[in-house]
């Protein structure tokens, strides 16, 4: 009865056709395609702030990203954006609309009006946009000289970030082991996961291969270099049900080449390859073209990878996370503070991974004594 725009009908028809293939096939509108490209590249032109919408429709800054224009301009967690370049922020303005207004060509200026607790009225901040890099690798040194590296996803910048993390962890010390955390990592770029696998594996080892209905879909990926990380350094992979796609490739490459022990829960099981095909008018479709096969020649699609040592999060850890998520929902201005607390926590899965590395050295010592 109600009139529909031709654009809505066009998009709906293509989405319906693609959804009949499998859940991973999808249509990208021009805006969605830009967001997807930003996500995989790990870079965009903007201010460098994490934002959210509060329950009452305010645009709240969770935190400025360190060493970005917003950070240098003095933007603080908990600030409220009330106006973007003369446009009022209303409860009806969506998060994506606000993001679109603030992103732009590096070098261009934008004025945002900020209200801060204790201020009688909003104040303008004129900021010059710059290239913002989204960090996908976090790391820290655990007790006993154990390196901890967490990948939030695999993007174009992940390999360089991983190199820097490794150099920082190895500086002035001999690592006793490395824990690679890919829990809740949805995947990302295959090439990044393959390049990172290469750091751990001896030259010539099969990392993963793809196979579909057409001969062109058959591709094999091998480690091309000698390992950067010595093979006598024990490695533990931390996984859970949120570990998917490229994160499963790294896990499988190390596990099935006997290079790592896998601790945690069964992974998600996304073992399919999607290829992006550009269309006219800035659209694109993402279509499944092949499946991934691990070095043991098995496809994990719908099955996942079973850990060597199954460890579920303790009830205490689960309750703490629930409490923190609720707190972030009710007090979004505290999100960054809570996230930092989570980053430094040692839950029972991480605790078990540390124990595995310590056990490795005990067995190694026993073998030396026996010989």
How does the SSE layout of this entry go?
Blueprint lengths: L5 H14 L6 E3 L1 H12 L1 E4 L2 E5 L5 E6 L4 H5 L6 E5 L2 E2 L6 H8 L6 E7 L7 E6 L1 E4 L3 E6 L3 E6 L6 H13 L6 E5 L8 H11 L5 E6 L7 E4 L12 E5 L6 H10 L5 E4 L7 E7 L5 E10 L15 E2 L4 H16 L4 H9 L4 H23 L1
CATH class of the largest domain: Alpha Beta
Query: What is the CATH architecture descriptor of the largest domain?
Result: Alpha-Beta Complex
Following the backbone from N to C, one meets helices and strands in this order, namely HEHEEEHEEHEEEEEHEHEEEHEEEEHHH
**Could you tell me the radius of gyration in angstroms?**
23 Å
Average pLDDT score: 92
Number of helices: 10
Q: Return the CATH topology of the largest domain.
A: 2-enoyl-CoA Hydratase, Chain A, domain 1
Short description:
The protein is α+β, with helices and mostly antiparallel strands. It has helices spanning 6-19, 30-41, 69-73, 95-102, 158-170, 190-200, 246-255, 315-330, 335-343, 348-370; strands at 26-28, 43-46, 49-53, 59-64, 80-84, 87-88, 109-115, 123-128, 130-133, 137-142, 146-151, 177-181, 206-211, 219-222, 235-239, 261-264, 272-278, 284-293, 309-310.
């Amino acid at each position: 009865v109600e009139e529909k725009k031709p654009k809505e009908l066009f998009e709906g028809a293509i989405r319906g056709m693609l959804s009949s293939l499998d859940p991973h096939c999808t249509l990208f509108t021009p805006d969605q395609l830009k967001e997807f490209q930003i996500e995989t590249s790990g870079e965009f032109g903007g201010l460098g702030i994490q934002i959210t919408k509060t329950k009452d429709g305010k645009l709240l800054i969770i935190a400025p990203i360190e060493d970005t224009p917003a950070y240098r301009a003095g933007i603080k967690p908990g600030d409220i954006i009330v106006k973007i370049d003369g446009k009022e922020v209303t409860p009806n303005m969506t998060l994506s609309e606000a993001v679109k207004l603030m992103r732009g060509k590096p070098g261009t200026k934008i004025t945002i009006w900020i209200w801060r607790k204790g201020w009688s009225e909003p104040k303008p901040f004129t900021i010059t946009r710059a290239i913002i890099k989204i960090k996908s690798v976090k790391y820290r040194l655990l007790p006993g000289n154990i390196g901890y590296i967490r990948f939030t996803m695999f993007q174009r910048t992940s390999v360089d970030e991983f190199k820097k993390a490794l150099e920082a962890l190895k500086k002035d010390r001999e690592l006793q082991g490395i824990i690679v955390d890919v829990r809740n990592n949805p995947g990302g770029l295959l090439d990044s996961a393959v390049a990172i696998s290469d750091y751990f594996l001896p030259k010539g080892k099969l990392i993963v291969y793809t196979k579909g209905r057409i001969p062109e879909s058959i591709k094999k990926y091998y480690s091309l270099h000698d390992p950067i990380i010595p093979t006598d350094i024990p490695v533990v992979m931390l996984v859970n049900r949120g570990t998917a796609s490229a994160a499963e490739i790294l896990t499988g490459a190390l596990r099935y080449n006997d290079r790592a022990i896998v601790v945690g829960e069964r992974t998600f099981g996304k073992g399919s390859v999607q290829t992006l095909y550009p269309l006219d008018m800035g659209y694109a479709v993402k279509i499944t073209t092949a499946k991934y096969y691990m070095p043991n020649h098995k496809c994990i699609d719908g099955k996942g990878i079973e850990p060597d040592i199954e460890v579920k999060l303790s009830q205490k850890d689960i309750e703490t996370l629930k409490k923190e998520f609720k707190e972030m929902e009710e007090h979004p201005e505290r999100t960054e503070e809570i996230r930092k607390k989570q980053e430094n926590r040692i839950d029972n899965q991480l605790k078990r991974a540390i124990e595995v590395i310590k056990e490795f050295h005990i067995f190694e010592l026993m073998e030396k004594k026996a010989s």
